Amino acid sequence: MAQNPPKTVVDVYWSFRSPYSYLVTPDLLRLREDYDVEVKLRPVLPIAVRAKETLFDDVEGQKKVGYILMDAARRAEFLGMPIAFPSPDPVVQDLQTFTVAKDQPYIYRLVSLGVEAERQGKGIDLAYQVSHLVWGGEPGWDQGQRLADAVAAAGLDLAEMEASLQQYDPLAEVDKNQAALEASGHWGVPTMVVNGEPFFGQDRIDTLRWRLDQLGLRN
Fold it and tell me: What is the pTM of this model?
């Protein structure tokens, strides 16, 4: 019996600390509904952790941060989505000096959960649920059962995921994702890649959909 050809893959390079990554998650769910594609989460570390020795070391860099925060809030209002800077910040960082702490208890846990979720076929679901918890406006996303409940809403079990993460090195997969992102021709998040073509930014979803229509992939 002939087998069905594999689905076209949309690789999504994505960060738990990126407001734009949060804002793109509803669109990613719609991609799966509207197109015959496989949308895969490729978590990467935030640039504050990846390039902390060179990031925001001048006034120009600080201006960029101010613009991103203003623009993300504006974009969220445009999309009708709640947004507030996370408390706690997924990256432990002094936002006055931009010094990044050596100890990072949150972001490595989150990115590892993203890797494990994708291994279980639920990467985009986890990205949607957890990013809404982290960025959705209520402080204390790490408290009590809130993270476990968000993971459960994605169809996963937090305790089982963390047990699985003890069996391998998820950060090795994160490194591969980062290398693949750079190989695609971009460095930022969210970047969606189809057939080697990158689409950077939450506001490039319409262009990505246009390309998928050209490829004849609409359901």
Answer: 0.93
Q: At what angle do helices 107-119 and 158-165 cross, to 10 degrees?
A: 90
8 A C-beta contact, residue 17 and residue 23: no
* Residue showing tokens 């910040």: 89
110 neighbors 16 (Cβ within 8 angstroms): yes
Task: Please count the other Cβ atoms lying within 10 Å of the Cβ belonging to residue 146.
Answer: 15
pLDDT tops 70 at residue 60: no
89: helix, strand or coil: coil
Calculated CA dihedral for residues 151, 86, 145, 79, nearest 10 degrees: -50
What sections of the chain are H helices per DSSP? Answer: 19-34, 47-50, 59-79, 107-119, 123-135, 146-153, 158-165, 170-184, 205-214
Q: Helices (H) and strands (E) in the chain — how many of each?
A: 9, 4
CA distance 39 to 121: 10
Ordered strands of the 197-200 beta sheet: 37-43, 8-14, 191-194, 197-200
pLDDT of amino acid 163: 98
Q: What is the CATH number of domain 8-214?
A: 3.40.30.10
Identify which has the larger pLDDT, 164 or 95. 164
Whether pLDDT at 54 is above 60: no
Q: Where are the domains of the chain?
A: 8-214
